[in-house]
Amino acid sequence: MSGSKVTGTVNLAEEGKDTIELPLVDGSVGPKVVDIRKLYAQTGHFTYDPGFTSTASCDSAITYIDGDQGVLMHRGYKIEELAASSDYMEVCYLLLKGELPTEEEKTKFSTDITYHTMLHEQLIQFFRGFRRDAHPMAVMVGVVGALSAFYHDSTDINDPHQRMVASYRLIAKMPTIAAMAYKYSVGQPFVYPRNDLSYAENFLHMTFSVPAEEYKISPTIARAMDRIFILHADHEQNASTSTVRLAGSSGANPFACIAAGIACLWGPAHGGANEAVLTMLEEIGSVDRVQEFIAKAKDKNDPFRLMGFGHRVYKNYDPRAKVMQETCHEVLDELGIKDEPMLKLAMELERIALEDEYFIEKKLFPNVDFYSGIILKALGFPTSMFTVLFALARTVGWVAQWNEMMEDPGQKIGRPRQLYTGYAERPFVPINKR
Ligand code: CMC
Fold first, then answer.
1. What are the TM regions of this chain, as residue ranges (predicted)?
2. Which of 182, 189, 195, 395 has the most CB within a 10 Å radius?
């Protein structure tokens, strides 16, 4: 394990007779972990942890979360500080390379990214192959996976240079692919990237400009877009990141791994929650129906959950949700949207849920997705694009984690075991005797 050290051992009672000692490993911050790698060899037992609620699947120096305190840090810098004082390109550099860039390094990095913003022209045929009403996440999974068929010079995973080129390509091309998925769904012409614009400005330009008229980008809106990207950039070993690592652990190419991550992110328990929040708010419709939906969320026999509430790791307010709420007010002010009913409804829902015994006892707080949908809707994105924006922003996290894994000399293929509950051996019955 790189960057971690064994600081002791724990004793496990082995079927009431023997005890075995397992190393206790210390990272830099956070709880120690019990290293169980030798457990099976020593005892013949596996551990059982569906959903990985007590399992560290790797060691990583990129992102740290303290779920009880509501803390999120990238390379030691708190997310609130990064959101307030940094920008997305700087955060990308930080995640990928480990340190904040100097001015010179940042300019070079941002310029290098712009060299890769265009897509191979033939890839346009891929978009045309989809139905116009396809969900843009379905388009993203397909097109990002297809990149491996176009950029053969960056698929050798054993070459550090090619790995970095693939990473830059993915960060640079995601906004282009996302904007094209949107343009295709509304039947407007694709808009090529403009490298004189910032990352967020360029994305807004490719998404919302049309050849018929000039498109002016508001600095407040571009800043809000950039901040949304920062807030989604990485989140340690969440489901999609673990998917990227697991896919990558077999030696799959980076584009295929990121396509796998996008597929995982799509689900409503993960990145799909931002879309689900807005659908839920629309369904609730008015403040006087909030109690009814809170009751549904608490009812064990009702599958309904308050979308945008709860988190596997945060048992406190998600620090990203706080920044998102502030950004929401800024965006609505800039757009001159007064008394947005959806925001009022969301704030009332939050207030009531935070006072409710059920949510207090289960430590269910608003997460990053609770307010993001309201902002994205105000910016003019259809709900189906919300998770696409999450995927765009999370790409840097995925490639940073994938690179970290590929650079680890102890890296192994991910291969969990199972608790088998099927039949024990039984004789085969010929078909005429069944
Ligand atoms: N509404 C009502 N009850 C909930 C909710 C919710 N949103 N979330 C959890 N609970 C209850 C759940 O029913 C369970 O109760 P009990 O112990 O009585 O069975 C308890 O709280 C623990 O829930 P869990 O499902 O065991 O917890 P988990 O860590 O497996 O799930 C979660 C975490 C995020 C999937 C879940 O809280 C959830 O489904 N939230 C809504 C979807 C959502 O907002 N997802 C976005 C997550 S943040 C962005 C991202 O990472 O992609």
1. none
2. 395
Mean pLDDT across 21-34: 94
The upper half-sphere exposure of residue 77, i.e. CA atoms within 13 Å in the direction of its Cβ, equals 20
CB 345 within 8 A of CB 286: yes
- Protein residue whose Cα sits closest to atom 15 of ligand 1: 362
Ligand 1 within 6 A of 242 CB? no
Average pLDDT, the chain: 93
Percentages helix, strand, coil for the chain (3-state, rounded to 5) are 55, 10, 40
pLDDT tens per residue, range 319-354: 999 999 999 988 988 898 878 888 889 989 999 999
Residue 1, pLDDT score? 53
Give residue 43's pLDDT band: very low, low, confident or very high (50, 70, 90).
confident
- Find out whether the beta carbon of 297 lies less than 6 Å from any atom of ligand 1: yes
pLDDT class of 3 with cuts at 50, 70, 90:
low
Contact present, 140 and 177 (Cβ < 8 Å):
yes
For 42-69, what is the mean pLDDT?
94
Q: Is 74 a catalytic residue?
A: no
CA–centroid distance, 26 to ligand 1, in Å, is 29
Q: Establish whether residue 272 lines the binding site of ligand 1, counting it when its CB lies within 6 angstroms of any ligand atom.
A: no
**Single-letter amino acid code for the residue at 318:** D
Q: Which of 181, 179, 185 is nearest to 202 (CA)?
A: 179
Catalytic residue among 87, 135, 311, 318: 311
Other Cβ atoms closer than 10 A to 322: 17
- The span from the CA of 62 to the CA of 80, in Å, is 16
- Model confidence at 67, pLDDT cuts 50, 70, 90, reads very high
Residue appearing with tokens 């407007």: 188
In contact, 293 and 306? CB cutoff 8 Å: yes
Distance CA 191, CA 33 (A): 49
Query: Is 238's C-beta closer than 6 angstroms to any atom of ligand 1?
Result: yes
Q: Higher pLDDT residue, 44 or 250?
A: 250
- Helix (H/G/I), strand (E/B), else coil: 25: strand
Cβ neighbours around 249 below 10 Å, total? 18
DSSP, collapsed to helix, strand or coil, labels residue 364 as coil
Query: Residues 6 or more apart from 294 whose CB is under 8 A from it?
Result: 306, 349, 352, 353, 356
Instruction: Return d(Cα 314, Cα 126) in angstroms, integer.
Output: 39
